[in-house]
TrEMBL record:
One of its GO terms (cellular component) is membrane. It is found in: Membrane. This is glucuronosyltransferase. Its main location: membrane. The chain crosses the membrane at residues 480-505. It comes from Caenorhabditis briggsae. Gene3D superfamilies: Glycogen Phosphorylase B. InterPro entries: UDP-glycosyltransferase, UDP_glucos_trans. The lineage of its organism: Eukaryota, Metazoa, Ecdysozoa, Nematoda, Chromadorea. One of its GO terms (molecular function) is glucuronosyltransferase activity.
Length: 509
């Protein structure tokens, strides 16, 4: 093992799934015997952080902006509009929304990059490396200021603008956009839709990074290093993807996939005890279904027509027990309408519940954390994506045969939802395919945790190693796709043929 390292993790407090992923990495690094410090710059007042980092040896440094008292007065951020808005899937509006997100980082980032006292304290720890997630890029500039090598990390499966910096080619044809089919079934309009979505996704991601860059420029009072150059210095790019679960995409060796790292312990599933309360609930009927739409979009805020559809589905399946994660579990209106086979729960022990054999189907929004958990549990899933990467996650899991990609607007159709769930419970092929995927994930030849640790230690030992990053990754659009050469090869014979034809016409006329 490499000698004990001093690792700094910049963990921006903004999105819960991002925070949870980086917190897990902190525990894993500390478990390896390395010294870990986690700097947590607060961009919102997130309250549910207790217990995310379990290793007591990890030093946590919470960093607050000057306006934090105002942030605490704000309601916890949710995306209520994601329920019935078609605009959340619109790539053009998504591009505009990305720039707005970056503005929420401004106060904390400016204070952090100007805070000489903080910089002096961090420098005193003699860190070997800084882990920075690419979603919020100020950590790269902090690392540059402290003259510490930065290692790029992503809590999602992919982030095309950064993927390209590390040499991953375009995913056109590899990953379908919403509404598209995969080759060989994909026709012209599928390919056109893929190009349209990819183009505006790239614009949106660049807009968010450029907006952050402008904030950083304001903070340090000069023109900073280009964010592309700074990020690309990392010898590896650690991403929350799994080659046996995700769409098959060509990735260079410097892109390290550690998806499933939160689920596995020494190659096997972590054993989690189920609370006694749920033992009684699961024994009431032969089949049980768990419904959860995550934490960012709340179930009790769904439109009334969606609630009516789900209630109708409950009534049509009286032989099934439903455990419904419903944040306002005491809401009188909902409690007065649910049948006896339904339990509303503000909080549910999701990992433990998914591993119980009495649970037959998981109805989920398709967040990456839930997608990973249900894939490793071997349970069929009804995927109801609401926004962001959830649409890709739903398609990604459904292609393995153990899940169904379900349109969120069909939640209003209780009969349809009941029919689909009944089929998933009664048809053994869903469970068979889900369990087959589980076996593959549990027997993958490279354990995600070891893959992460070994690449982290390698990156700390060789922080400037760049041989795995192809030079073409920073070429412009035209040279990257050799469009000038293609145009030349088309134009040259066309010109010669045209000139020859013109000359023959002149001669014989």
């Amino acid at each position: 093992m490499t000698q004990n390292l001093n690792i700094l993790i910049v963990n921006p407090i903004f999105g819960f799934s991002h925070v949870k992923f980086l917190s897990t990495l902190a525990d894993i690094i500390a478990e390896r015997g390395h010294n870990v410090t986690v700097l947590q710059p607060f961009h919102i007042a997130m309250n549910n952080l207790d217990g995310l980092i379990k290793d007591k040896s990890v030093k946590i440094m919470n960093y607050y902006p000057d306006n934090f008292s105002e942030l605490e007065k704000n309601e916890e951020q949710t995306f209520k509009m994601a329920w019935d808005s078609k605009l959340m899937q619109n790539p053009i509006l998504g591009a505009l929304f990305s720039g707005m997100v970056a503005k929420q980082f401004k106060n904390t980032v400016i204070k952090m990059l100007r805070d000489e006292k903080l910089h002096k304290e961090l420098s005193s720890y003699n860190f070997d490396a800084v882990l920075v997630e690419t979603f919020e890029i100020s950590g790269f500039y902090l690392a540059e200021s402290l003259q510490i090598p930065a290692i790029a990390v992503l809590s999602a499966v992919r982030y095309p603008v950064f993927d390209e910096l590390f040499g991953q080619s375009s995913t056109l044809g590899y990953i379908p956009a919403t509404g598209s089919s995969l080759p060989p079934k994909a026709g012209f309009f599928s390919r056109l839709n893929d190009v349209y979505n990819t183009f505006f996704l790239s614009i949106g991601q660049k807009a968010m990074n450029n907006a952050q860059y402008n904030v950083i420029k304001e903070a340090i009072g000069r023109k900073p290093t280009a964010w592309q150059d700074l990020v690309q210095r990392s010898p590896v790019y650690i991403v929350n993807a799994n080659p046996y679960l995700n769409f098959a995409v060509a990735r260079p060796g410097n892109v390290v996939q550690i998806g499933g790292i939160t689920m596995l312990k020494k190659g096997t599933l972590k054993k989690i005890e189920l609370p006694e309360e749920y033992e009684k609930i699961l024994n009431e009927r032969e089949s049980s279904v768990f419904i959860s739409f995550g934490s960012v979009v709340r179930a009790y805020e769904m439109p009334e027509n969606f609630k009516k559809g789900i209630l109708k589905m409950f009534e049509l399946l009286p032989d099934v027990t439903f455990i419904f994660k419903y944040e306002d579990e005491l809401e009188e209106d909902m409690n007065s309408r649910i049948p006896k086979n339904v339990y509303l729960k503000k909080w549910v022990p999701q990992p433990a519940l998914l591993l119980d054999d009495r649970l037959k189907v998981f109805v989920t929004h398709g967040g990456l954390g839930s997608t990973m958990e249900v894939a490793h549990s071997g349970k069929p899933a009804l995927m109801v994506p609401l926004f962001a990467d959830q649409f890709e996650n739903a398609q990604m899991l459904a292609r393995h045969g153990g899940a169904v990609d379900y349109n969120k607007f069909d939640l209003a159709n209780g009969k349809k939802m009941a029919k689909v769930l009944k089929e998933m419970i009664s048809n053994p092929s869903y469970q068979k395919n889900a369990q087959e995927l589980q076996k593959v994930l549990l027997n993958q030849p490279i354990n995600p945790k070891e893959n992460f640790i070994q690449h982290l230690e390698f990156a700390c030992k060789f922080p400037t190693w760049q041989s795995q990053t192809p030079g073409i990754s920073r070429s412009g659009f035209i040279p990257y796709y050799y469009l000038d050469v293609i145009l030349f090869l088309i134009a040259t014979p066309a010109t010669l043929i045209g000139a020859f034809t013109y000359l023959m016409v002149r001669i014989f006329s």
